[in-house]
Amino acid sequence: MGDRQVVDTVDQQLPSSPPLPPPPPPSKDDMISCVMALEAALLPCLPAKELQAIDRSPHPSHQIMNAPIINGEKRRVVKVDVDRHARDFMEAAKKLQLYFISLQREDKPSKAEMLKKEIALMEDELNEKNELIKKQEHLIQEWKKELTDQLDKHNTELNRV
């Protein structure tokens, strides 16, 4: 539960912090090592299906201890340092979370960049519309000229008659 509170406070601090310059993107090898650390921290926490699986476990934190004899049976107890593994897991999870947050920041442009892009798009749209208006005005001028020419022809014919 204490770990959950730590994670919650980390989540609460990240969005409210002032925008920092984006850290250099982690390499693929860094991410693979983070995932390996995450897996290495998680696997020892999982319960073994058989005691023999623990016997073969190379992990140093799995300590097999002989327990007292109960009902004529000798029992073996496996002691696992769960707190340490949970801490390692949480550290690896935080690194992975920071990696994904950095990826999200890379994909998400800043407010200023978004506004610049919008302004550029609007300027392009305005230029296109201005060109269309000029073309239409040119067509209107040509039509006016044709109409005045036709009007002059009709007037000259009327004057002849």
TrEMBL record:
Cited PANTHER family: MEDIATOR OF RNA POLYMERASE II TRANSCRIPTION SUBUNIT 28
InterPro entries tied to this protein: MED28, Mediator_Med28
Organism: Pisum sativum (Garden pea)
Biased composition (Pro residues): 16-26
GO cellular component: mediator complex
Pfam families linked: Med28
Coiled coil: 112-153
Gene Ontology BP annotations: regulation of DNA-templated transcription
Similarity comment: Belongs to the Mediator complex subunit 28 family.
RNA-binding among keywords: no
Alphabetized UniProt keyword annotations: Coiled coil, Nucleus, Transcription, Transcription regulation
Protein's cellular compartments: Nucleus
UniProt key word Transcription: yes
Stated name of the protein: Mediator of RNA polymerase II transcription subunit 28
Disordered as annotated region, ranges: 1-30
Major subcellular location class: nucleus
